[in-house]
Amino acid sequence: MTLAEKTNITAGTGIFMGSRCNGNTGSAPRVGFPQLCLNDAANGVRQADNVTVFPDGITTGATFDKKLMYERAVAIGKEARGKGVNIWLGPTVGPIGRKPKGGRNWEGFGADPVLQAVGARETIKGIQEQGVIATIKHLVGNEQEMYRMYNPFQYAYSANIDDRTMHELYLWPFAEAVHAGVGAVMTAYNAVNGTACSQHPYLVNGLLKDELGFQGLVMTDWLAHMSGVGSALAGTDLDMPGDTQIPLFGNSYWMYELTRSALNGSVPMERLNDMATRIVATWYKMGQDSEDYPRPNFDTNTRNREGPLHPGAWPNSASGVVNEFVPVQADHDVVARQVAQDAITMLKNNDNLLPLSASRSIKVFGTAAQVNPDGPNACPDRNCNKGTLGQGWGSGTVDYEYLDDPIGALKSRASNVTFYNTDSYPSNAQVGADDVAIVFITSDAGENSYTVEGNHGDRDASRLSAWHNGDKLVKDVANKYSNVIVVAQTVGPLTFEQWHDMPSVKTILIAHLPGQEAGDSLANVVFGDASPCGHLPYSITFKEEDMPESVTKLIDYALFNQPQDTYSERLYIDYRWLNKEGIKARYAFGHGLSYTNFSYTDVAIEKVTQLDTLPPPRKPKGPVLDYSQAIPNYTEAVKPAGFSTVWRYIYPWLSESDAKKAAADAESKSYPYPAGYNDDQKPGPRAGGGQGGNPALWDVAYTLSVRVTNTGQTHSGKASVQAYLQFPDGIPYDTPVIQLRDFEKTAELAPGESETVELTLTRKDLSVWDVEIQDWVVPAVDGAYKVWIGAASDDLGTVCNVDALQCESGVSGTV
Ligand code: NOJ
User: Fold this and answer.
1) Dihedral of the CA atoms 49, 53, 57, 59 (nearest 10)?
2) Residue 222, strand partner residues
């Protein structure tokens, strides 16, 4: 590739400059390298026709089912490929869910690094097996929406994260993703420890590329690119969507500026060659050079067949066919429904009110039972909360072809259903003694590109209460009816002490964000075709303040100074905090009931690998590809004669005079590198050595097996087996009381049926990050670790003692 070809493929061509896809890179057609199509969302293909709206990440996390996580991803990957997406902008694992009110927690899998890591790993496998490049995002610390972005007048907040917390919580899912071979990483808008992520050399070059050995491409979040030379040297490889922070003027820090920087020597050619190689190599690795990889065939701005080819060049854009209406859904509704159904989390079910018989008289309350009367896509990027809440809002959303709503599904199954489509208790409601009332409530959140009912992305206005006076509606209904079921479609934890203990509120179901299959998935559980088997991917507290102030208080002010979001709670988020402080959760992380009961027996632990305090030394760095190259002739930077440009589109070329000047500058000027800068190859961090870090970190140290039996008489069901690790007493590191380390879900077990599941603990699972040694340390080799096993973080009736290799059932858990 020529200089201009390389700088053309390392940036987007400008926001809205391609009608297709949420971002498009430049191409190098002379050598057969196409424009790449980059597209959201973490639950499907955003702003496209004929696609499936899969349940969101939080819903997927609530299944605690690796197989379903993978199968959902296979289906999303097929749809993305069918639509011609080269780089899919998911999965989301940052935010991890540190702040319960954080706006985008629902895109990820839940407030725990292992749950996020497993969700990401299974998703990456499923997506990339289809040839689509997955993107793990956002690296890192994007734990709230307000003030996440820099603009010329305002600093984004700085997420101040100490080294150990970074490794053990926030980087953990990224490490797993790199280990799974993820092709792309997106940096976050915000700063980390004072430096913006898109130009953070320690984060990108250091942690991600050196320590985690990431071989793919690093892109900025949209319009988060803030510098030319700085971000290139920091390790960023792809500037998206190509513009400076003030878009649509055809201005970029890269493209023509990167060409200039290479010509004048301020960005070494070897860095540019590395950037371009990372992009091209990832494309080859996924097999996208094959003839049958589809080209993009959908438009993100219109559903018309024809439209502007470069909407950003309005009113000067050429027109053409932009939508080819390629259907890609196949039978993906099946897996979408299964995920939605297996995520439904039953918190309580007094008097076995559920399941209902189809002949029961049912009164349904709440506008969320029915699809938005204006249509499921009435609000762009789902930026309103009207009707059934299937997704949060913002870029992490998909357009519905249909939304199977709960009321439709309930009515098709039961003959005696009355629906009061209101969020205030209706004066004309008929109350029968044997009625069952089902009340639908919601809580929404999203990206701060939109403010919805006063919520700036984060739930800053609604806090953790139900929207639309939902709590009052539940109370009013519960005052009239004696059998009440509450169904919550929610982005995250709610507090519901106002009504939780009212005797008539017998059942609570959390449906999370079910996507397009909100109806039958729920009806199947309500009428007992399936037992609920979802588990909470976060804790529900009695009150918001049960969590530390550092996570309950949102950054809400940012004039002049950079707001500081300091992670002073360190490792102690969600259940780690509650357990440390001895605060009882209303419903603990991992909680979820079934219509049946399960026993966990025949538990055994086996040692697989004898560990040492430290992992075996990493292999020395292999030979480094030789990317060095003399600065090319300035003519490689000049637009070919006769090439006609599109207004405001971003190109890699300089004028001839600028190119000549840059080349002359290379002779006469030198770039002021920081004092001490040199380009000697270092041996590499001791914790590195493979994709994700030292490969020995993934050695299996112990396996555990558990026999799970459905001990009920009447209902089939799937059981969740969760394994939490407790570090030995007396070690010189403060560690959370217990931490999730692995989980499995059984198949559907009939009454009396059993299944044996296997869980594993790796070297990394048994380690802590030692900030002085800068490595993962096993603090007590063969020590008195305990592995607690059960159905929830507060329901752990089995314990295995790692030192004795013995397990015991029927114990009461540690929390
Ligand atoms: C901004 C969001 O933060 C990111 O997640 C998304 O992929 C891009 N916009 C592109 O839409």
Assistant:
1) 170
2) none
Residues sharing a CB contact under 8 Å with residue 785, sequence separation 6 or more, in sequence order: 725, 726, 727, 728, 766, 801, 802, 803
Q: Flag whether pLDDT at 412 surpasses 90.
A: yes
Packed helices 113-128 and 66-82: angle between N→C axes, nearest 10 degrees: 40
**Ligand 1 mean position, distance from CA 301 (Å):** 16
Helices 113-128/172-179 angle, 10° precision: 30
Which pair of structure tokens corresponds to residue 204? 């990108």
pLDDT of residue 812: 87
| Ligand 1 neighbour 589 (Cβ under 6 A) | no
Torsion of CA 378, 221, 328, 26, to 10 degrees: 120
* Residues 499/550, Cβ–Cβ less than 8 Å: no
Q: E strands along 390-503, which residues?
A: 417-420, 436-443, 484-490
| 425 Cβ below 6 A of ligand 1 | no
Distances (CA, A) of 753 to 63, 338, 718, 780: 21, 21, 11, 39
Distance 47 CA to ligand 1 centre (A): 13
Check pLDDT > 90 for residue 815: no
What pairing do the DSSP bridges indicate for beta strands 37-39 and 87-88? parallel
For residue 186, what are the β-bridge partners?
A: 219
| 6-26 tens-digit pLDDT | 999 999 999 999 989 999 999
Indicate the pairing of strand 700-710 with strand 598-607: antiparallel
Taking a C-beta distance cutoff of 8 angstroms, is the pair 82, 88 a contact?
A: no
Q: What is the distance of C-alpha 657 from the center of its chain?
A: 46
The Cα-based distances of 650 to 86, 104, 129, 233, 244 in angstroms read: 20, 30, 33, 22, 11
- Let me know if 221 is a catalytic residue: yes
Q: Which ranges of 604-726 would DSSP assign to H, the alpha helix?
A: 656-668
Residue-wise DSSP of 309-368: S-GGGTTS--EEE--------TTHHHHHHHHHHHH-EEEEEGGG-PSPPTTS-EEEE-GG
d(CA 470, CA 468): 5
Which positions ≥6 away from 92 have C-beta within 8 Å? 42, 57, 104, 107, 108, 137, 138, 396
- What is d(CA 566, CA 559) in angstroms, rounded to the nearest whole number? 18
DSSP 757-811: EEEEEETGGG-EEETTTTEEE-SSTT---EEEEESBTTB--EEEETTTTEEEESP
The CB density around residue 375, as the number of other CB atoms within 10 Å, is: 12
d(CA 447, ligand 1 centre) in Å: 9
